[in-house]
Structure formats: C-alpha cells, structure tokens
Give the backbone structure.
Amino acid sequence: MVAPDWQTFAANTTVHGLRYVFESPSRFRRVIWLLLLLGAMAIYVFLVAQSVAKYYSNPVNTEFKEIVPEKGELTFPAVTICNLNRFVKTKINMFENDDNFYKMSLNLSACEAIKMANIHLSCGQGLLCAFERFGSAVAENCNETTRQQIISVLNSTKKPIFNPEEFLSTYGHDFEDMFLYYCRFAAIENCTSADFQPSLTQNGLCFTFNSGENATTVRGTRRAGTSGGLSVILDVQANENTISEFSRGLRVVVHDQGTFINLEKGFNVFPGSHTLARVTTTKRERLQYPYHSNCTQRLIPGMPRYSRDGCFLQCEANTTLAMCGCRIMGIPVPSNSSVCTFQHQFCEERCAESHNPSKCSCGIPCEEIEYTSQVSYSQFPDVGAAKILKHLKAYNKSMEYQRANLVFLQVGFQHHGYTLVTETPSYRLGSLLGDIGGNMGLFLGCSLLTLFEFVDLLWSVLESRADRSKSISSQEQNDPV
Ligand SMILES: *[C@@H]1O[C@H](CO)[C@@H](O)[C@H](O)[C@H]1NC(C)=O
Ligand SMILES: *[C@@H]1O[C@H](CO)[C@@H](O)[C@H](O)[C@H]1NC(C)=O
Ligand SMILES: *[C@@H]1O[C@H](CO)[C@@H](O)[C@H](O)[C@H]1NC(C)=O
Ligand SMILES: *[C@@H]1O[C@H](CO)[C@@H](O)[C@H](O)[C@H]1NC(C)=O
Ligand SMILES: *[C@@H]1O[C@H](CO)[C@@H](O)[C@H](O)[C@H]1NC(C)=O
Ligand SMILES: *[C@@H]1O[C@H](CO)[C@@H](O)[C@H](O)[C@H]1NC(C)=O
Ligand SMILES: *[C@@H]1O[C@H](CO)[C@@H](O)[C@H](O)[C@H]1NC(C)=O
Ligand SMILES: *[C@@H]1O[C@H](CO)[C@@H](O)[C@H](O)[C@H]1NC(C)=O
Ligand SMILES: *[C@@H]1O[C@H](CO)[C@@H](O)[C@H](O)[C@H]1NC(C)=O
C-alpha cells in the first residue's frame, strides 16, 4: 500500500526534480537528478542558515536626513564662556582693611587660617599661594617656605576649612565686570548680564548663556548666520591676570542644555579679536540593546541630560567619594560631603591611579545633540567700531586697551536646519521570511504549502499503516489456532 502512495506523491509534488528522481526511465538520469536535488538542498540549507545568522546579528542602517524645523525655529544651544584667568588680581591682593573686602564677600572661612599662619599676606594671596601648584611663583610675597607653612595650617584641622569651590567662585571674575554694554540675540533681542548663569566647572567659574536652567525658556532662532545667534562684547580684564592655563583670553563651549560642561570640547578666543563661531548641529538617535549601538537612557544625578563624558567623570568622582570621602571639584555627585582639598591630596592621587573607567558602564546616549563649531577670527575693534563704542556707549578706553582686552563673540548657526542621524533595523522578520521563501523557490521550486504536502503524505502513510494493522489483527482473530 505504501509504495504506490510514495510514487504518486513524487509524481505530483511541487518540489521540482523529485519526480524525475523517481520517474526517469534511465537509472543514469535518475542519479543525476538525485545529485542535483541534493545539491540544491545543501545550498538552500546553507543560505537559510546565513539569513538566520544575519537576522540574529541585528544589523542596522544609518540614515542621514537634513531637517528644516517645521515652525522655522531652531533651538539655540547653550554657550558657556569662561575667562581663562582664574583669579582676579585686585581681589587676590585686597587686604582685610580695605572697605571693599567685605563688600565683595571675600572673607572666606579659610581667611582665619591665613591670619593664624602669621605672615603678612592678604587672604587671597595666601590661599592662591597654597592652592596653585606654582603658587609660590604666582602669588606676591610668597615663597615655597611660606607655601608649606600655609598648607600645614590649612591641613591641620580634621574637617577641611578651605573650600576650593568657594575660593574659585568668589575670587574669580564677575560677569558684570566682563560684560560690556553690547549683547544681542537673533539681532533683535537685547540680552543682559543676568542672562549668563554662573556655573562652576573643574577649571573655575564660567557663565552660561541660554542654559535653560531654573525653568528659563530655551531660546530659539529663525535666522541662520552668526548675526542670527548670540553677539556679545566682553572685556577679558587682562590686567587682572594672576594664573590661567598659560594664556589669556576666553574659553567658549557650545553645548546642549543640561549636559555636563566639558571644557575640553570648547575653543579658545584671544583678546582683541572678533570671533565668529558657525555652528552645525547633528542630532543622533540610536537603538538600544540588542542592536549594536547598545545605547543607554541612563540618568545621572546632578546632570539633567546624560552625556558620556559627564558619566565617566562622575564615575571617577564616585570612586573618589567612596575611597576618600570627598567630592572632586566641579563634578556633581549626589552627596553634600566637602570638596577634596589638602587633607585628601594623597588619597585622591592614589584613587586616580587605581580608577578603572571600563567599570563605569557609561554607554552612548540614545539621543544626543552635537554642536560642531567652525571658528574664525579677525582683529577687533577696527577704527569704526571704536568710534561707535565711544559715541554711543561713552566708552573712553584707549585703542591699545581695547585691542588687549575686548572680544566680540558671535555664535550662530551655519545652516537653517540640522542633520538627523538615525539608526533603523535593516533586517527584520519579514526580510528573513522573504529570504527563506525566495531561496526555497529558487533552489527547490517549492513554497510553504509544499511542506503541507509532506505532512499530508505522512498522514496518509500513518493512516494506511493503521488500516493494515487493523486488517491483520482481524485476520488473526479469524484464524483458529
Ligand atoms: C570673617 O570670617 C571669619 C570666619 O568665617 C569670621 O570669624 C569673621 O567674623 C568674619 N569677619 C567679619 C568682619 O565678618
Ligand atoms: C620666605 O619669605 C619669608 C617672609 O616673606 C622670609 O622670612 C623667608 O626667609 C623666605 N624664605 C626663603 C627661602 O626665601
Ligand atoms: C535694545 O537696546 C537698545 C539700546 O541699547 C535700544 O535702542 C533698543 O530699542 C533695545 N531693543 C529692544 C528690543 O529692547
Ligand atoms: C536657580 O534659582 C535659585 C533660587 O532663585 C538660585 O539659588 C540658583 O542659583 C539658580 N540656579 C542657577 C543655575 O541660576
Ligand atoms: C554615582 O553614585 C550615585 C549614587 O551612589 C549613583 O546614583 C550614580 O549613578 C553614580 N554615577 C556613576 C556615573 O556611576
Ligand atoms: C547632607 O545634608 C543633609 C541635610 O541637609 C544632612 O542630613 C546630612 O547629614 C548631610 N550629609 C553629609 C555627609 O554631610
Ligand atoms: C595633610 O595631613 C594629612 C594627615 O592629617 C597628611 O596625610 C597629608 O599628607 C597632608 N597633606 C599635605 C598636602 O601636606
Ligand atoms: C550594553 O551596555 C551596558 C552599559 O550601558 C553594558 O552594561 C552591557 O554589558 C552592554 N551589553 C552588551 C551586549 O555589550
Ligand atoms: C572715561 O569716562 C569716565 C566716566 O565715564 C571718566 O571718569 C574718565 O575720566 C574718562 N577717561 C578718559 C580717559 O577720558
């Protein structure tokens, strides 16, 4: 009964070739057909295995799109401006008997310690001498002996009395003094010094325009070009220089609101320059695990928006906090313990050596906005600008002073739009099934329904077996033994 079933099946099945394997009159041709059929099957299995492997590797496509914002308004980035000089000379050299000393709230708690050291230095001089590595060279009336003396006094208490953050923010530049009459946003809106929020970074006090902090609205602009963004004239107060990163001028960082201010990503501006920063925006959207980017939607305490460099720095600060019990200056950590200072110096160094960034699990963010600045400079002011300043603003400083101090900074978008870079899965279940089906058709000439032909065959085989065993057992019953 089985043999005829199989013959009919082979003759009628939609698997091409199977028929010839059984029906060809010559044995030679039957063998050839069998080999062809087996070959096609092998290739098919190989290709299906490849497709499945590709599906499980979760490949992605990266698409680049140029977007022009619908309402015509582009969100303007935050612009952080820092004076490279960290401490104002006038403040540093101000003695306690000066009227302004208390007015400028220069009386820090550590000032008592300087007095205790019994040396004739102002509070600022003493702290600068102790705080900076080359303090004895930089601060007046200070030599290495005095430096060690001050450090030992500041280090003598169990609880630190010296707070570097406080020192940097009170003895640093005031924005009011750097701000000079002129500030425009998008060519029409007047901005004031109050629009620049102070923020403490690792290198000292900086000021952020359009920070979006404290629920202030984030500005947007409808105009491309440097005049469509922020234009501001600043005075770097070069004659107030004490110590900086070996040069005078400003550091400017263009960044996304709420992300950690990474000064490494900024550019320097020299005094006496008209600085144009043309910003291009790239917005990136990535896919989470299991896709290759494995991006993270993590939130980090103290930073409204995740950024990878902020995460790494906080991770290191966390390690220091755990090992030494103090915060690294300028890095937000969820703790109100005091800032690291002389008491923690050696612990801090040991910690920095032993810190292992690969343990931080700081992945790349799923959404990220990158601002890339193209910066160009020319000399500022020219004769015309100097005359305008004098005429309109009654600014009477000499040309020499202006060339040594003023910066005209303009930050604006290069294009009216941004580049959106998105990742999309490139090989989904549909594509996998398509490949499996397509190859099935190409190599075996059959489709999904052919599988049911085999099921059907199996069914009829089982059925006929059952029939036969029934008839055999009924025969046995009929046979008298
Ligand atoms: C200055 O600060 C010290 C320590 O905080 C304090 O004892 C002292 O009274 C302050 N001086 C004035 C005049 O406020
Ligand atoms: C350092 O300065 C103090 C006072 O300003 C002075 O007494 C001392 O001799 C100086 N030490 C050195 C090594 O110059
Ligand atoms: C901005 O300030 C200038 C004078 O400094 C004034 O003439 C102008 O009207 C102000 N613009 C706005 C929009 O307030
Ligand atoms: C936000 O506002 C509070 C209270 O007005 C103030 O203490 C804080 O410094 C502000 N933060 C910034 C970044 O300006
Ligand atoms: C730092 O520690 C805090 C609290 O322990 C934690 O919430 C935060 O995620 C840590 N930051 C990093 C970057 O590991
Ligand atoms: C942090 O501040 C809170 C409340 O202000 C206080 O209860 C806690 O003891 C402080 N922690 C440290 C380590 O100072
Ligand atoms: C501060 O004092 C501690 C001990 O109290 C000591 O280990 C550390 O070396 C001192 N730091 C400096 C800079 O002298
Ligand atoms: C994905 O990233 C997280 C950290 O964001 C990490 O812990 C995890 O091991 C990564 N997974 C893979 C498969 O790389
Ligand atoms: C500049 O103007 C200020 C007042 O605005 C005045 O006190 C000062 O004498 C002037 N300087 C010169 C060089 O004219």
